[in-house]
Write a structure and sequence with these properties.
Layout lengths: L6 H6 L9 E2 L3 E5 L7 E7 L6 H7 L2 H18 L7 E3 L15 E5 L3
Antiparallel strand pairs: 1-2, 2-3, 3-5, 4-5
Bound molecules: guanosine-5'-monophosphate.
Amino acid sequence: MYDENNVFAKILRQEIPSTFIYEDDYVVSFYDIHPKAPTHVLVVPKKPYIDLNDFMQKAEQDEVYHVLKAVQKVAQQLDVVQAGYKVLLNVGKGAGQEVPHLHFHILSNKK
Ligand code: 5GP
């Protein structure tokens, strides 16, 4: 079951202050608090999905498209497309997912 008190739910409700570098109807994006690369940004869907499994079970096709499109738009906005970037999606505690709200990491060696 989705935990309404996870840290990203609090950020989405603006109970924890965070500077969004991108926002649209489907996602918000902000810098990771503990960056693991020179550029490390998170893209977080606004709806309460726990992880990719939950997302693919519940989301409309249109939403899946818009969320992925937003990941790529944020990479463009960060100007890391030319340099290259990784998109990381941890699914489940066993894979290292600490925050139980779906999120995509964008990592690039370009600052
Ligand atoms: P996960 O391990 O769940 O895939 O990634 C969670 C990420 O969220 C980690 O990279 C961690 O540094 C980041 N994080 C955790 N709490 C906060 C927070 O309060 N603010 C921000 N900006 N990032 C956070």
